[in-house]
Design goal:
The protein has two helices and seven strands. Helix content is about 30%, strand content about 35%. The strands form two sheets. It has a four-stranded antiparallel beta sheet. The chain has a three-stranded mixed beta sheet with strand order 4-5-7. The protein has a single domain, classed as Aminopeptidase, CATH 3.40.630. By secondary structure, it is α+β, with helices and mostly antiparallel strands.
């Protein structure tokens, strides 16, 4: 598995180059805004999407930023796992 991180996303590719996970978090009005989360069917139910949100939390913390979410998964995740970094 290969993970590629840019300023606003994390993407994971399997050994054949197929995109198997992705989370987008552009900087919007001073917040990292989680706008999209995708996990391939082959990885669903294994905690991958939650781990992606946790990685964005780490990135936000390192940059001294807070997080907003328009992605329905990320919103639900923060409802179940409150964080001081999350702004509703």
């Amino acid at each position: 598995m290969t993970e590629i991180r840019s300023e606003s996303s994390l993407k994971g590719y399997d050994e054949k180059g197929k995109l198997v996970y992705e989370i987008d978090f552009p900087l919007v009005d001073g917040f990292l805004e989680i706008t999209h989360t995708f996990v391939d069917d082959s990885l669903r139910g294994k905690g991958v999407a939650g781990a992606l949100v946790e990685k964005v939390k780490t990135i936000a913390s390192e940059k001294g930023l807070r997080i907003k979410a328009t992605c329905s998964f990320a919103k639900a995740y923060f409802e179940k796992h409150p964080s001081d970094l999350y702004e509703k």
